[in-house]
Design brief:
Elements (H helix, E strand, L loop, with lengths): L11 H13 L3 H8 L3 H55 L20
């Protein structure tokens, strides 16, 4: 008691081939007759593909924006690190105030006497 479906299934290759032909044809009605499909079906396939391509483009754009934001954060962190290290190096390399003494120990009573 199996019932045959009134809808035909078309392979992905067939649909892609039909859409390639649609892009270069001047007479869509003739193309549909050659393929044995309706104009509505052909245009439905085209619209579905366009929506899918737009979604992929939006997804790629969103991924790039996220990556860009992440890279900006990393760059900011590295810039802060470089600034900190430059300031630290300047402090270490800065001339120290000269001592007025001869470097000898201070005079005083020797311990233990």
């Amino acid at each position: 008691m199996s019932q045959e479906s009134k809808y035909r299934k078309f392979s992905k290759e067939f649909r892609e081939s039909a859409l390639r032909r649609l892009a270069v044809t001047a007479n869509v009605s003739e193309l549909c007759r050659d393929l044995g499909i309706s104009r509505q079906l052909l245009y439905g396939w085209r619209d579905t593909r366009q929506r899918k391509q737009q979604k992929q483009a939006q997804d790629a754009s969103q991924r790039l924006r996220q990556e860009n934001a992440q890279l900006k954060k990393v760059l900011l962190r590295k810039t802060l690190e470089v600034d900190f290290l430059k300031a630290a190096c300047e402090k270490v390399a800065a001339p120290r105030p000269s001592t007025t003494g001869s470097g000898e120990t201070a005079s005083g009573k020797p311990s233990g006497n």
